[in-house]
Amino acid sequence: MQDTLANQAPNDIQFSEAEVGTSLWRDAWHRLQKNKMAVASAVIIAALSLVSAFAPWIAPYSYEEQNLELRAVSPRPGHWLGTDALGRDQLTRLLYGGRVSLMVGIVATGVALLIGVTYGAVSGFFGGKTDIVMMRTVDIIYALPFTIFVILLMVFFGRDIRLLFVAIGAVEWLTMARIVRGQVQSLKKQEFIEAARALGLPRWRIIFLHMIPNILGPIIVYATLTVPSVMLLEAFLSFLGLGVQPPMSSWGLMIKDGADRMEECPWLLVAPGVTLAATLFCLNFLGDGLRDALDVRASKD
Amino acid sequence: MFRFIARRFLEMIPVLFVIATLTFFMVRLAPGGPFTAEKSIPPEIQKKLEAFYGLNKPLYQQYLDYMGNLLKGDLGPSFKYATWSVNELIWSAFPVSLELGCYALAIAMLLGLSAGIIASLRQNTAMDHIPMSLAMIGICVPTFVLGPLLILVFGFALGWVNVSGWDSARDRILPALTLGTVYAAYIARLARGGMLEILNQDFIRTARSKGASSARIVFKHALKGGLLPVVSFLGPAIAGLITGSFVVETIFQIPGLGRFFVTAAFNRDYTMVLGTVLFYAVLIILLNLVVDVVQVWLNPKLRFE
User: Fold this and answer.
1) Do A151 and B30 touch (CB under 8 A)?
2) Closest residue of B to A275, CA-based?
3) Of residues B232, B236, B262, nearest to A182 (C-beta)
């Protein structure tokens, strides 16, 4: 595709560019629909998100309801996933936990994608002094102490779960930026980008319409890796007492609690662990499906 | 290339200066101080302590003092570990984390690269799905689950290794596995993605049509470009690995550097926070520089700009 674009006469390019601009996404949509694993994964993720979103209406108990007489019991009718040490229903906590974990996964990864891809692409494309200043800024943010950053956010803006999403997104974009920059730098030297430049296309157009579609593969692969690391970072912050606080729950927090008592009460670890793993598997299949669907070098069938 | 490296070393100076300044004022903004522990110290003793560490001086004076000492390579005394300087604390803990990090890195590279490369060559077959599913499990199992799980199985049930500690060579096995697994999983996925990008390109098809063996195609043609995403990832990953992990060091009772990153922030041990941050910053900048050099070597289309 790149070679043909570079070899075409200028008036042809006008035409073919208009066609490519609309059909990349439509092609991708068609290819994605044919990928059964990816479609099934998307359905499961959507279902999990819906169930979590409507947790207050679906959950059999309230998330703060304790039953101290019951203490930790294994799964049984009435408590289908068992209860924890304070007699809280695990299914209820899992549903509520999904709200926090899925939100943090989506929002923080979205923030990281938006900032990281734009930042990395601009830095790599412009090069020179711009690149130096932008990349040294990344070095600085990499090094700043994350724990102190979160403590400061809590002090100045209060304990707000949305802040946590922003804080996590604000650190997760750095590696994405470096990966995108590396890819853009090597893409910059290719003929089709030189052709686009020779045509005098504006730089933002070259970056967003010609470069980013060509590096969607690595971007999607890294984004599907960011979602689990973001969810686990939330668990780590909750573990330090800086994230979600009981009785509110998140999958990470439940896994943490389950890990402490995995010998006597394995169900406390299994339910959130399996749910998180299933979600990440689905995301992974969806990510791979998207990667294959958006592969600009694949033939149009 | 030497000009490039020399210039990057010069760029380090302003970067470290900005990091030191930002961190200095960030820790001061956080409420509480190094001597406001739960056990309240009598006010006169607290005054004396603050005078001893220079905390009663105006903030700008403290900042100038700190930066002056920093120029001499002195990171100051720790506020929490009396009689210890930050330099001593870091140099006593870093070798432990470095050793553990190197084992973990070796595990991660060996498992990750082989799994990723094999998966990319056998795309959409069992040889692709099985290692990639294992990698996904490796990514979603957090270290605070994997560590206790390994201890349960190999420490208690089988009794092959000690449950915690850092004395014999055997004590290195479980922590290195715990730390290395998640990185192995990341490397496997990034290597597969990068290799797939390259294997679809025309020059690989040309090599194939010329009858090059698949070993030659992988090692001679594809690997260099295919590993670019892995190399970008490795810079910060190695810095994270060799400076230790709070969770792994807590689980296995290892006297490494990682716990200081968290405890210093909670103790408001100002000099220790600054010391660890600057130490980490130097490592990450140096490793990112190495990454940039390796990237140019791997991809001849890039130039040292």
Assistant:
1) yes
2) B140
3) B232
ipTM of predicted assembly, 2 dp:
0.74
Is-contact A5 A15, C-beta < 8 A? no
Question: Where does the pLDDT of residue B97 fall: very low under 50, low under 70, confident under 90, or very high at 90 and above?
Answer: very high
Domain boundaries, chain A: 24-52+82-294
pLDDT in tens, B218-241: 888 888 888 888 988 888 889 889
pLDDT tens-place string over residues B137-175: 887 788 888 888 888 888 878 878 777 777 777 788 889
Comparing CB atoms, the residue among A152, A182, A298 nearest residue B30 is A152
- Kindly report the average pLDDT of chain B as a whole number: 85
Q: State whether residue A106 sits within 8 Å of chain B by CB.
A: no
The whole model's pTM is what? 0.80
Instruction: Give me the CATH code for the A24-52+82-294 domain, please.
Output: 1.10.3720.10
Distances (CA, A) of B89 to B16, B95, B238: 20, 11, 21
Q: In the beta sheet, which residues pair with residue A79?
A: A76
Whole-angstrom CA distances from B27 to A167, B4, B32 are 17, 34, 10
By the CB < 8 Å criterion, does B142 face chain A?
yes
Dihedral angle at the C-alpha atoms of B87, B89, B91, B92, nearest 10 degrees? 160
Q: Is B198 exposed, middle or buried (0-12, 13-18, 19+ CB in 10 A)?
A: buried
